Amino acid sequence: MKKIIIILPIIIIILVVIALTLSFSSTEKNSIESEIIIEADVIMPTKVSRPGCDEIDRCYIPSVIVINSGQNVTWLNEDSAFHSVTSGFYGNPTDLFDSGHLDPFESYSLDFNEIGTFDYFCTLHPWMKGQVIVE
Ligand SMILES: [Cu+2]
User: Do 89 and 107 reside in the same domain of the chain?
Assistant: First the structure.
């Protein structure tokens, strides 16, 4: 009987320590997950899968980006729908670049080494247009 009286508090202490360790490690994990930030130069914001963003020039933000030759542009799809970054115009792609369908929160990066104006669009949403100007 005496043994049980001694062992029981020890078991309880061990269980409490295990519970605290588990809860600490899970909150640490959550804070790390929420700190994952994808840096992007151009974003595809929410709701651009419906027409209307073109009227306020906010299908890609910014819709026109000016960079220096040799620089890189990263696009990030912040919408819940698929989008693409495809060179040219809807119905008239130029085959210079094509991200394919970008999943929500998927990003796409490209180096621009030639000076020029590069129009692009979304293959799924004809109203989505953007431009990269390389100086
Ligand atoms: Cu789109």
Answer: yes
